[in-house]
Amino acid sequence: MLEKLKEEVYEANMQLPKLDLVTFTWGNVSGIDRDAGLFVIKPSGVPYETLQPSDMVVVNLKGEVVEGKLRPSSDTPTHVVLYNAFPDIGGIVHTHSPYAVTFASANMDVPALNTTAADTFYGDVPVSEPLSKAQIERAYEKETGEVIVKTFADRHLDHDAVPAVLVSQHGPFTWGATPAKAVYNAKVLEVVSQIDYQAMTLSAKDNHVPQYLLDKHYYRKHGKNAYYGQR
Ligand SMILES: O=C(CO)[C@@H](O)[C@@H](O)COP(=O)(O)O
């Protein structure tokens, strides 16, 4: 079942070590077939060196395993919440990439300080509120998804324009139209976090890009007037 999507999700997972986005098994990618109402996700805790396309696990939008020999990623309930809340996304990534985790550890947004950020994120990447003790004890991974959705609702953010979040004192989740696009966004977030960390070390000023530069760079790659690349 969903053999093509399993290959796609496997390939996207294998990009994480290649792009230096994971240490050991600390990350996962999923991809969804909206018509089937099913998504494919990496199994939990399997080293990338031994991972196979056939190891991918098929899950429904209630979080029930539909196919697969292995246990799905421990973050599966977070992916379930995000697929249900953001019905246009096709893939999700979670990593513990160090610069993004640095901002999550400091409970700080990743600010849009330059065109590298503005090319992909239409504004700051938000950090969520911390999860409460009750949330963590109740249904930790599901509540992690809920807190991400609440962050976007409370701050009136468009999840298409800012396809990334930091979960407080945990790490980044990114998403996109496809699993590969979600991986791309995870790498951009890590690069932007590293640059921001360095810039904020050099200067304590507010160095946000002005709105006109944010608009110029975001919209040259997104929307009906985009002109970057080959069209
Ligand atoms: O955050 C954690 C563990 O603390 C997980 O996201 C990470 O290790 C990946 O777990 P899975 O191998 O996907 O179950």
TrEMBL record:
EC number annotated for this UniProt entry: 5.1.3.4
Keywords, comma-separated and alphabetical: Arabinose catabolism, Carbohydrate metabolism, Isomerase, Metal-binding, Zinc
GO BP: any one term: arabinose catabolic process
Catalysed reaction, written as an equation: L-ribulose 5-phosphate = D-xylulose 5-phosphate
Pathway the protein acts in: Carbohydrate degradation; L-arabinose degradation via L-ribulose; D-xylulose 5-phosphate from L-arabinose (bacterial route): step 3/3
Required cofactor(s): Zn(2+)
GO cellular component: cytosol
Cited Pfam families: Aldolase_II (PF00596)
Parts of the chain that traverse the membrane: none
Domain of life (superkingdom): Bacteria
Domain Class II aldolase/adducin N-terminal span(s) in chain numbering: 7-197
One Gene Ontology molecular-function label: metal ion binding
NCBIfam families with a match to the protein in the record: PRK08193.1
Role summary: Involved in the degradation of L-arabinose. Catalyzes the interconversion of L-ribulose 5-phosphate (LRu5P) and D-xylulose 5-phosphate (D-Xu5P) via a retroaldol/aldol mechanism (carbon-carbon bond cleavage analogous to a class II aldolase reaction).
Family the UniProt entry places it in: Belongs to the aldolase class II family. AraD/FucA subfamily.
The protein's name in its UniProt record: L-ribulose-5-phosphate 4-epimerase
Organism of this sequence: Lacticaseibacillus camelliae DSM 22697 = JCM 13995
